[in-house]
Amino acid sequence: MRSFGELEERVMFQLWAADRPLQVRDVRRMLAPERTLAHTTVMTVLDKLYRKGWLRREAAGRAYVYTPVMSRDSYTAALMHDAWSAAAGPATALVYFIEAMNPEQQAALRDALRVVSLGRGSGDGDHAEDRLHDRSDDRLEARPEGHAEPEPVGQDEPRAG
């Protein structure tokens, strides 16, 4: 998966932050504090993102409205997976990644691992962010029988490689 160019990324950030589909003029207005862009420039970027499969496009009167095909978190996860898959030593790369995390990020990783562990085989079709938010409210205290507390991540772990 390729990452976005600078302007594509800025446009995608605006679309991800929006709570509704956006027209070209909406995106242009949202980008205005940072950059002054021509309407046709924004329209071209949105069209390219649509043609690349990153956006849905629907007619709304005489204009189109655009929405992202995937969430920002899903896109980030795909980039992380691609980077990790390309590593010569995936376990070593993962250790370096975890060691670079601050305590809050490590706690988020522990929560995510619990959600994945608890959700395996559930087949409920929930999105990852829904499962994480649903279960992080109670800090995942209720665990099914046979699910032990995962070991702390990145603390006193043997270094791979």
Automatic annotation (TrEMBL):
It holds the Pfam family Penicillinase_R. Keywords: DNA-binding, Transcription, Transcription regulation. InterPro entries: BlaI_family, WH-like_DNA-bd_sf, WH_DNA-bd_sf. Transmembrane segments: none annotated. It comes from the Bacteria. Residues 123-161 have a biased composition (Basic and acidic residues). SUPFAM superfamilies: Winged helix' DNA-binding domain. This is Putative transcriptional regulator. It comes from Actinopolymorpha rutila.
